[in-house]
Design brief:
Layout (H helix, E strand, L loop, with lengths): L1 H13 L9 E2 L7 E4 L2 E4 L3 H11 L20 H5 L7 H14 L4 H27 L1 H10 L3 H7 L7 H20 L7 H19 L2 H22 L14 H19 L2
Antiparallel strand pairs: 1-2, 2-3
Length: about 270
């Protein structure tokens, strides 16, 4: 009995292995059924597999595969964009475009980058607007920090509102135009007299002292006439119309002094 068992084991070991039958495709190589051991199995189509690979390994990532911006939780917009506080607008735009390109596809990163850029731009705009509005206060601060003699000299001047300046400029510009229009017939004596009286009136409105206003207005007029008399001979003749006499040119300089005196003197 033992001999029969040993013989059967030896014969089984000595028996050659049978190669499994190769599967064959039912209906041709391109069919979707594979027959293996009598059982039909569905075979994945090659086109579907290649399409899946192209989606997973393509150039465009979905939002779940896009890189996350590591500084998107930073509250400082300058640190978030990686720029200095004194960076130019061109540098800020370059940093924004670079980060949007690096972290494209992740909505939270893009929102953080755009939000930091908007904050910096709004801060820059408000700073420029505030600097224009506070120009007068900056000039006042510079005057306060200047030497004492400069403060004493500037104490005689003031900067009125722009509407006052524009009205005075138009007023004395009218006298200048009137003098030019009538220069061929009569001299500017009458226009100069009216402008001097107007200057004294404007000064008296601020000084509340007619004597002081009259003396100041007359001094401004004389100063303008002297400067005009010295300036007219050095003006090139080719830029002056031939109908303009030296008295007219001197009176134009006097109009400028009268305008500055009644507008900016205290």
């Amino acid at each position: 009995m033992q001999a029969a068992v040993a013989f059967s084991q030896a014969s089984s070991l000595a028996r050659p292995f049978r190669r499994l039958a190769r599967p064959y495709h039912a209906g041709g190589a391109d069919s979707g059924v594979v027959v293996r051991g009598g059982v039909s199995l569905p075979r994945l189509r090659r086109s579907w597999c290649s399409a899946s690979l192209s989606v997973g390994a393509g150039g465009g990532y979905g939002s779940e595969h896009a890189p996350v911006f590591p500084r998107q939780k930073t509250w400082d917009p300058y640190k978030l964009l990686g720029v200095d506080r004194d960076a130019t607008e061109e540098e800020i735009n370059s940093a924004r475009n670079f980060l949007l390109q690096q972290y494209a596809g992740y909505e939270e990163s893009e929102e953080a980058i755009e939000g930091a850029y908007d904050k910096i731009m709004m801060k820059s705009y408000s700073h420029r607007k505030k600097s224009k509005i506070n120009l007068k206060s900056k000039l006042k601060k510079q005057v306060e920090e200047s030497p004492s003699w400069v403060k004493t000299l500037l104490g005689y001047f003031e900067v009125p509102a722009m509407d006052v300046v524009s009205r005075r400029l138009a007023f004395f510009g009218f006298f200048a135009g009137w003098s030019i229009a009538t220069s061929a017939g009569t001299g500017p004596t009458f226009q100069l007299a009216l402008s001097l009286v107007s200057c004294i009136y404007f000064l008296n409105d601020k000084m509340k002292n007619l004597v002081r206003a009259s003396a100041t207005g007359l001094g401004v007029f004389v100063s303008g006439w002297i400067v005009g008399s010295l300036l007219v001979p050095v003006i090139p003749t080719f830029i002056v119309p031939p109908t303009w006499c030296p008295e007219l040119l001197t009176s134009l300089v006097a109009y400028v002094f009268l305008f500055l005196g009644c507008t900016f003197l205290k």
